User: Fold these one by one.
Assistant:
Number 1:
Amino acid sequence: MPTLGQNQYGKAECRVVRITRNGATHHIKDLNVSVSLSGDMDEVHYSGSNANVLPTDTTKNTVYALAKEHGIESAESFGIHLARHFVTSQESISRARIRIEEYAWERIETAEADEAQHSFVRKGQETRLTQITYDGERWEVVSGLKDLTVLNSTDSEFWGYAKDKYTTLPEAYDRILATEVSARWRFDWADGERPMPDWDASYAQARVHLLRAFAETYSLSLQQTLYQMGSRIIDNQDEIDEVRLSLPNKHHFLVDLEPFGLKNDNEVYVAADRPYGLIEATVLRDGHEPRIPVDLPNL
Amino acid sequence: MPTLGQNQYGKAECRVVRITRNGATHHIKDLNVSVSLSGDMDEVHYSGSNANVLPTDTTKNTVYALAKEHGIESAESFGIHLARHFVTSQESISRARIRIEEYAWERIETAEADEAQHSFVRKGQETRLTQITYDGERWEVVSGLKDLTVLNSTDSEFWGYAKDKYTTLPEAYDRILATEVSARWRFDWADGERPMPDWDASYAQARVHLLRAFAETYSLSLQQTLYQMGSRIIDNQDEIDEVRLSLPNKHHFLVDLEPFGLKNDNEVYVAADRPYGLIEATVLRDGHEPRIPVDLPNL
Amino acid sequence: MPTLGQNQYGKAECRVVRITRNGATHHIKDLNVSVSLSGDMDEVHYSGSNANVLPTDTTKNTVYALAKEHGIESAESFGIHLARHFVTSQESISRARIRIEEYAWERIETAEADEAQHSFVRKGQETRLTQITYDGERWEVVSGLKDLTVLNSTDSEFWGYAKDKYTTLPEAYDRILATEVSARWRFDWADGERPMPDWDASYAQARVHLLRAFAETYSLSLQQTLYQMGSRIIDNQDEIDEVRLSLPNKHHFLVDLEPFGLKNDNEVYVAADRPYGLIEATVLRDGHEPRIPVDLPNL
Amino acid sequence: MPTLGQNQYGKAECRVVRITRNGATHHIKDLNVSVSLSGDMDEVHYSGSNANVLPTDTTKNTVYALAKEHGIESAESFGIHLARHFVTSQESISRARIRIEEYAWERIETAEADEAQHSFVRKGQETRLTQITYDGERWEVVSGLKDLTVLNSTDSEFWGYAKDKYTTLPEAYDRILATEVSARWRFDWADGERPMPDWDASYAQARVHLLRAFAETYSLSLQQTLYQMGSRIIDNQDEIDEVRLSLPNKHHFLVDLEPFGLKNDNEVYVAADRPYGLIEATVLRDGHEPRIPVDLPNL
């Protein structure tokens, strides 16, 4: 009989919006929460007995109930509440993994400043991410972001590369460098007894480090830029031990305008879709082991 | 033999990025341009003779060449250059329609302010839109935006509606109202001899009017909010005669927490995907005829 | 005060699956239904009074209730039931437009033929479409399909076209021609007293005519192929008076392998994404007026 | 200084279409190929020296050149050619991972059977997948599929599950069970000296086993169905040692028609989008170690 290997289950993509009212001033948290539970689940796979299976519908209900009971201070703290709940309340569940996407909103400015403290426009830039894993003893928190698109219109070169018989690319001494940052960083916080990092402050810092390292690096290759981005976080944020980056090279090709008698002095580019270079790497605090998987999940 | 009706052709989704260098300070324009040409095109449909057909590949080349020759001051002015070029330079082409999507970027703030005037992060909020139509005599400019998501966490009610035997909805006296604004507005500018509006200033104003009207309207129905949003533009922007809005009602349902012994005092909502209410209407300057189609194109 | 122009509202994208059991043999219909209602709706826009507004939630309920009461014989007949219901049952509603997407399923073949007459796999090819409009007197039925991707690996040329100073395209005497068909066709059935066409048979015929006309036309331009596709329907299906086609030219470029000492004898192509040629036209039965809008809606 | 961990790079999503002509009968292969290379790449990350970096543009060229030189017999065999090429021809590259998506086409049937042997319509059902990894010694081939949507309209129950204070789900004794299959299976072929499996025959068999196991299992939980699907492959295909399945529970909820005086006898369902249950597990040949990652990559 075939063996059952790693397995997990739960409700994915529970969309929860939490409004907090501070007098006339409202605050909003907008999350997409996915729950994955593991434990003593052999029987349901082999025979269909659900005795150990808390329904995915219940895991969904729990997301909404805990949003009421605990509020949502940050994505990370909310995920910690959820993971602890499942592992400590269900004997058959020994491990919980909570993934959260967070969508940022900003206030709509109205004519009278005090008028519309309940009106928001979605920021629409990057999506903030976190993944909380708990096995009853150790915590692992991996946060990050995706869909943050950045571009340098100069200070990027690419030359001196290896060549073989299929190489036709001309060397470039002044090119556009653009990418859509997908990043994950792992916190050193693993012991629930220790005080937690300030999750929101840490996120804000990591985001700035990524942006500034991208902007401030004179780039000879996207790999070099990637390493600088990851290092900036490791060097400046003691609470983070590992960063994984997946950087598609969003090619902007200089258009050949010579057939039309025009000179293109790094002015007109075509933004290409596919194919794209894809540069991926892990940057680690010295002496630490990597734990973030090679393939970053989309959700 | 079947008759040929309205027809048009051209290259769609030409992605052009234009960098302008002002010393060390760079500026970026990022457009997605679609060209549709009409004219004396019966023969190519009936017999396949391409004698009157300027290739779509040429229309693509023209987008890039004109980006160099004229620069891109605004999406609207660039579309006007393109439409004029096609109609005046090709005898067989009597009408050109140029559609443009524009993606906004903002500067990355670096440690030293003067350091990275060539580094950008995509703003990622709404997409700006314009459509230029020219038949050799009259111009029609319809601009707008899509994917601007807004939410009021209070000041919205829905009650007193018609009921039939399929009605089960309870009346609501304090609900979330959220939508993803898709708007188009038509300029009164039609005579190429007249001075053009300030396209960028007009766009900025219309965007603010939409946001503020949404925020400042105490809403008894999304239709009422829609009319206020359109009216705000018509009342304040003389250069615009018609507004069409397509507003999906992005439902946020209050979660029933009573089964868990919890009271949900307008705090925890589920953000639903489908189905969604869809409210669409045109708001016109008095005495003007509508010209924007009922179905807003996606591109 | 600004004038209210055309307006409509309703619930969009109601996903309804209808199972019919014929003994152990089950049948499935899988639809995505969008309702748009118009009528005496000025007041809700001007003042927010909902007295004439049947809630969009009710229109959703009606979709599910009528799926039970009438069954779903075809997308068109179901849309006709819905449109008639809204216009005849609500005094304030004078016009209904029902749009339906239909997803096809086929049976999973099992070891014992009689075993699994309730198991289906989604066909996943084109999406069938229909739009029913009713104003209490006249019916308009426009059906069609989208996302049907076809390719001819030969029998396509493109040469003899107009050239200007921006033309660089070399002429082609044997190229791949590929497109993703989006088609709409309008039925002559408008009088509810007349017998309806056989909607399913008509759809099956139109689909075959589109595919065969694409395959059997030796093409000198995509416009010529388009006209043949539309004409094939008009010539063979008396119940249809108008066809509108939107055909993106899904470019397949021959890869230049000469730098590698290889000859590419129409063997290796790159399938490009953007930009793409876009060819759109209406083909009409002689003497009839066009009614399908120039821009085909996405839904 | 932060340490560089796992890293890889290459060109992603190279779209290659290969036409093979057998007289008037053409054959088509339509792939999306992504290359990831690893090796002696520290320097490019630390200093930006590209001396060891074969450009991603070259890896793209290689995809097209090898499509000419070797043809595309199957996605797997083509990926093996590519991986071997990179590892054996570049000293700095010690490991190659090739991911391929394959889109299936079927012939358009024309009036005269011999007429259009060069006309195709995209099948549009599942996407076939493979991933080839080669480190110069061992091969790993993981194939699979995604986006295969299946539905049983009966023979599914869900009851007897664990309950806590957040459980409200009623037990179900006859429900729709639907999912969108994402599957990966790992071949035992690792030694390049051994004869390869018949990749196409193996794929066809695995696809049938997944479909039939889904259809033929009377299901008490989706976990049980998943295990049956994986076991069917392991039990019947000696060349496969491990299967990983990711099965979203595409919920079809019975609509409550009682408020309208109607009885819903398992006839009318709403197909829900989010949230969805997500059931994931590995099924292994007894005595083998799992190697497919827990999170299946999207590409």
Number 2:
Amino acid sequence: MGKPAVLLLSGGLDSATCGAIARREGHELYALSFDYGQRHRAELDAAARVAAQLGVRRHVTVPLDLRAFGGSALTAEIAVPKDRAASEMAEGIPITYVPARNTVFLSLALAYAEVSGAADIYIGVNAVDYSGYPDCRPEFIAAFEQLANLATKASVEGQLKFKIHTPLVNLTKAEIIRQGTSLGVDYGLTRSCYDLSDAGLSCGHCDSCLLRLKGFAEAGLTDPAPYQS
Amino acid sequence: MGKPAVLLLSGGLDSATCGAIARREGHELYALSFDYGQRHRAELDAAARVAAQLGVRRHVTVPLDLRAFGGSALTAEIAVPKDRAASEMAEGIPITYVPARNTVFLSLALAYAEVSGAADIYIGVNAVDYSGYPDCRPEFIAAFEQLANLATKASVEGQLKFKIHTPLVNLTKAEIIRQGTSLGVDYGLTRSCYDLSDAGLSCGHCDSCLLRLKGFAEAGLTDPAPYQS
């Protein structure tokens, strides 16, 4: 068995690919998902399927209701934008921004990593397609890594030197899909939609679906995940 | 009404004093507590009492079950040490250490602060009595503040410049109690015990009770909170 690593796993295309890369790099995976008031449980079902396919050692889902604070289309009752042009998506910070999301996710990943003896944390952030999210940028990740090494018993006592891995950060969606495909990721198990149906069908029209479908088209592949007709 | 500030509020002596200082500094308070698998609900009851006395604008309690990861006497079924000498407490990192606790707490405070339009976050950490906790040290707090200003829409777009306030960091317990008393904090409402009874009575023997009782003694005051006889 390889060195333990924590994987932030949403059940989407990016985190599934990130997990396959971590596994290729020889890690035994400790997957972490959040039940953070998602609109649909179907997203957690996707995470469970992907975890099983990756053969993770352990998969923990932490209930975390970010709706308590409000403030995002992904957690509150704000409409998810549909059928936007790429130029509109690229403008500023998306409405789907969740306040301090990756800071919260990484801090819980750090707790899980310390308990699991894992120095490595994998997160599938991307600064190409999601350039609008401040907490997907390399300078944010570098600052978190620095914080992590000051924050814990294991780092301060020298047992673990934490590293935050972002293997997708500079890849286009098409490059992510090609890499994942070569590593055997079954994208039919994954869901990326911001507005999934209860039955787990993607809408095909939100920013995330549009980016995903464009990525498959550019990669010359067909998305095996089911969409609402 | 003053500028909004987020207050991390446990219901203990330190966070109650920290809140009184934030209020004296003119802030309107947004209190944040965690229901993180505490052994006793009595701790949350204390937080609610203190929030009411402080006259906070809003008090959010986020369910956050850190027991999912295991690894601490405060969250798992490990015995809380009793009647230890100060010299024993000072050795290394306490068994009551919770992995990445303040990183997790501050990251959720950051989310709450962004949503509330609060640039200021108050946390009652102390590097004197709790020198063993890595995430109570000034260098940790400075690293978190740096991270916060890279992490959010509000900071990146220039609306909020986050500051993490730690007004107790260099005070002894006796100094904290004197300052809180002069600000009108009713310490009878607060609980600091690691092993509170269901009825909200402190044990008087855990590290936290011993530090608290020593603080009151050194301040020449009597602790008004109830103890198990």
Number 3:
Amino acid sequence: MGQLGLESSDYVEFDLRVRYAETDRMGVVYYANYLVWFEMGRSEYCRQRGFNYLELEELGYRLVVAEAYCKYRQPARYDDLITVRTSLDFLKRRLVDFSYLVLRKGTEEALVGGKTKHLCVDAEGVARTIPEPYFTYLSRGLPP
Amino acid sequence: MGQLGLESSDYVEFDLRVRYAETDRMGVVYYANYLVWFEMGRSEYCRQRGFNYLELEELGYRLVVAEAYCKYRQPARYDDLITVRTSLDFLKRRLVDFSYLVLRKGTEEALVGGKTKHLCVDAEGVARTIPEPYFTYLSRGLPP
Amino acid sequence: MGQLGLESSDYVEFDLRVRYAETDRMGVVYYANYLVWFEMGRSEYCRQRGFNYLELEELGYRLVVAEAYCKYRQPARYDDLITVRTSLDFLKRRLVDFSYLVLRKGTEEALVGGKTKHLCVDAEGVARTIPEPYFTYLSRGLPP
Amino acid sequence: MGQLGLESSDYVEFDLRVRYAETDRMGVVYYANYLVWFEMGRSEYCRQRGFNYLELEELGYRLVVAEAYCKYRQPARYDDLITVRTSLDFLKRRLVDFSYLVLRKGTEEALVGGKTKHLCVDAEGVARTIPEPYFTYLSRGLPP
């Protein structure tokens, strides 16, 4: 499994408060739920780069997840205030990779990190170039 | 809020084992998850009455939920073996109501009970008569 | 099943954006997820009345859900901005009831409404009077 | 990110049917839910090797997740019958790694694969040797 970290300083952040529903009997956030937060990070990333991910889907395109990786350092707990920091790692015609850091809000304490790899497909599931202007919007977040 | 109970003896059962993901920090099944089990009960009900709920959706129909009610008596916990007993309470051209009992498997100990009310709609969300042969399939579970 | 509505004008609101994870194959928010939003409403209700629900749990008390009811009018969809309006309906030594309205943010369009009934118990599950100062905090939200 | 695959032929399987709640608006199983299935695979792995994971937790031990990886090939859909095949990849005093394959039941068609790495900790979160007889039970699944 891979490395953890955001190489780019060019990230997008959003905050959330941990829901009771997101915890498990160990008293911490259930491990699959960080992937939900990553997805929220991607949505927010698109929004702050100039478009709504929903538009892309309404045009018949989807950024399907090909791989996901998650490294757990410290657990988040009910009612914690969390910052999810999302960065675009890689962008090519049909491919886009994101990195994530889940931080205790107001600190640089990384609780969880992760990466996802995506492929752009059309409604039939065929790989497609990410259409304009979305490719350009996404590329604004690329490390130089 | 309503009464709890299955008036009909003509029910359908399926078993499940409680998932870790379904628990919360209180150590019990999170209260919204019983509605997930109810939905599994409806799917199983249809299957045992002769059709697959998916077929109905593929024809463009949906049994949307109009109301849901849940009464919590005793909590289910991780790894518990559970029986969900589903009964059809009411059936009219466009309407169908189900009742549920969540039991500790092998006992008559009811942990949770519930009811849902559904409306048959088409792909545009317009109310429609439940098409044949599905109406007839469903009616097999009606109390006499 | 019951009526829908908030009789009290004394409510607490919070906003959320619908997550991709909260939708189902029908393209709308899965029906159980509204109960998750109700729980967030209760948390926010407590916070805005002067305490953190977590404190109550850390003292060994829990407001367990005895009943939940949900009425579905219109679906919420991915990326919608939603306001959850929470009201305290009833408060007695060991009992507290909440009502909820799920609104399209910025409108009075009620998508979903609901009610939950809760019982205060201690760590052993025995019914207990809601301890002070929490009872007083909660009572601030009571309709006159 | 890592490789996908089960090196060991010594695996444990269980079946599930995809729940409506597990799908998203794309009509497929939401990507985080495969991690829920992996956890069910681990539970089942323990059970078939001679113990209940719950016992380990009741003794104050936990196998916390340190890393998770998931590779998505083909989506699972509502009502699909799925087999989850779980294998123990690595076992050392305090560490245990599992691999998973999510198959269309009755076939060798791998929809999703994954790996998780776990650390044994006590109730205070301190790393501990996996206690006997659980270490021995787990080791029964090790490739020779």
Number 4:
Amino acid sequence: MTDILHRIVIEASPEKVYDALTNQAQLSAWWARAETEGKVGSIVSFFFGPNGEHQVEMEITDLVPNERVCWKCVGGPWVDTDAFQFTIQADERGSALQFSNSGWAEANEFFMHCNSKWGFFFTVSLKNLLEKGSGQPHPNDPNI
Amino acid sequence: MTDILHRIVIEASPEKVYDALTNQAQLSAWWARAETEGKVGSIVSFFFGPNGEHQVEMEITDLVPNERVCWKCVGGPWVDTDAFQFTIQADERGSALQFSNSGWAEANEFFMHCNSKWGFFFTVSLKNLLEKGSGQPHPNDPNI
């Protein structure tokens, strides 16, 4: 088993980072078009592909305001992995965000591709959304 | 032991990708200012920090033109990790580049930080250098 693991510092408060991970419009502004948001047990649909034809469903499994967001993929390419966990900590420059998508059976080409994509979404899209006001969500992400 | 692993497709020939990984001016145009280039056994110095005050030394341990580049960090923060390996394969859109920096003792915060940084350098800086003509090398990379 292997994990995708990232960590970035964002010049924004933990409240702003948490909002970007839970608010429908904000999620759509840095990752992919989201439909619905909600409480633990809700399922959020995200749309990928040039025309949003690939639907991914994430069940919200844990929410701790301004500290933690957890998802489990219940529809889409990551159903065989374990949790997606975002952990937010206060940092002298704003917030430190750690991310893990654990439980990959092997570090295959798709694992590597997804790891590179998350690197883009965190270091560019989410960071720019929160620091400069605009992200670069799918399908405007690099075609790697 | 754990590894940093990335994979991206670049719309450029394997020859162009190999050049970006071995030519002094090209390395300086997507990763960090490089001094010297060379053959197996040579040491390439890279400069990090706002004013280039942190020197990293990479020994070139393997070169297969248009296919593979391997380094070993012999000075700097990655001396305790194993090889840095770039593998290039022809892809219908140009080239597929796989990267590994293996042999990290643990997936600590610095591991996660470096993984996120490599995500940026590959998906944005190297890809844009080869596809659009300009990269975003250190110190102009995101301050994560």
